[in-house]
Amino acid sequence: MNSDTHKPQTPKSFMRTMTVLHAVLTTGVFIILVAVYYSSDALIFGFQDTEDIYRIIIPLVAMIGYFGGNLIFKKQLDAIDPKASLKSILSRYSSASIIKYAFIEGAAIFSLIAFSRIHNVFYLVISVLLLLYLWSQRPTKLKVMSDLKLKKDHEELFMKNEETLP
Q: Where are the membrane-spanning stretches (predicted)?
């Protein structure tokens, strides 16, 4: 009896996994955003409370989420050996993408927490902008190939959807 139920990875299965992961993270933030918005009693425009520490922290966290996620993503991609197998390269790309998504998602959720406590629309807008940016990061084959700058042989293999990755 063969107990190995692990299916070999193909470019198609890699893209499906990345797309589902991205969709789950994006949908999660969207659901939280909608729930927090509809549970808020009143919306506050502007900053009446000068003691509101979130007005400094939230933009800072948003910038860290955006720039930090992109910086780490680029550093991890730069560390990938172009001579490695395509399977290894895609695995490293997947890890780098997850970290980038987590930075953006974390900043968006933190901003939603501030909105749920203070009800200031400024924090909701930051969350919406981060959510839109996260959504724009949806993985596609062209984006993966562009990000990785694949060699010709890796690119050809990646374009073959059903080809098992060595």
A: 20-38, 53-73, 93-115, 121-136
